[in-house]
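Input.
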Amino acid sequence: MGRVSDAFGVMSKTACGAVLAIPLAVAMGDGFATAARLEEFLGKPVFVPMQTLWKGRGGWGGAVSAPGDGTVVVFQSPGGGKCRRSRDGGVTWDADIEIAPDAKGGNAVVNETTGELLYANPPSGWVFRSRDSGATWARESCEMRPDGFGLAPGRGEGVAAMQAGVTLAFGSHKGRLLMPARIMGPKGSNDVAWRPYHYSTALYSDDGGKVWQTSKPFPVLGTGEATLAELSDGRVLYNSREHMSPGNRFFAWSDDGGDLWINASRSPDLPDGVRGSSYGCMGGMIRLPVGGHDILLFSNLDTDAGEMPKQVGASTSKGREKVTVWASFDGGKSWPVKRLVFDGPSAYSNLGVGRTGTPSQGKIYLVFEGGAGGHYEAVQIVTFNLSWLLNGRDFHTFLATGPMPQ
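Output.
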């Protein structure tokens, strides 16, 4: 029996020539989170050097790979409502595709149940859907419901500057769309006086993106710009920037599909941007879609060149450089591997991962701001695999010994 893929599943051709459409979720087994084999990310090291996608700031809307053909799509947000695609696994990139002139400040998520790509900004009431791997987009309205305090993202950075969302693959909430978000306090203001009242949150949808519910607050004030990943036991790890005090990234956990976040703590390993400053930096975190392992990757800056702002909660970007990727092989309990990706000015970053059976198979994508001319010079992308990240070390020495405790 032959097989070909389309954007919504696997098309299987019977011996008599009839074509049967197998729904994507069925064809891929227990969700995208278990679709890949570990061997796909190992083998000969792969590293595709830095390529420029756009000049200036951006790339905050996420990087995703489309079900079916594995097309890699990167979103320009917030600088413009555009995306760029690679159909050969990141070797070359097509010209800009305009989603819509006003499609700014959104976040990407792949609906693994239907195969659609979504670019959504629930605070602004819109979601764009693509059924052809990001080549064309259709606008729809959506509803966003507030949290238990009557607050919801909006009037500022709601879902901008976040890692792309996920489709939950395990447990009773399998199929839920979940993305990180930010509530800018009761006034929706980014003025320094209101920054202590900002907090991270999440938005989730159980109907494919028509209605989005705001989760309970991330349990640390002064947070914002975040990422999350589902582990194979169904727990969701939330990883957030904080901009009020010096120190590493904040973690919290959800046992109910991303509604309630508990057990907040600082990571002992992962920096929140430039060390020596209380002003953090957007970073990325993904789980590699490998069954039987909870391999997490994190991206951010790895330098001690920072300074404290003159006012608590205020901004400073001094010393933003040396974008780096870390790896955990035990669901975030430890991060024993890291490798410098670009030894130069760099800032915001996020991560994406390829698809089994496509040109993007086994590849990891780091999107970041930076360049020789400054940390906001351009939106860059680098492609690599896990073997390159391990840099000659034996993967088996890092195998997980158990899940991370809450």
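The chain is about 0% helix and 40% strand.
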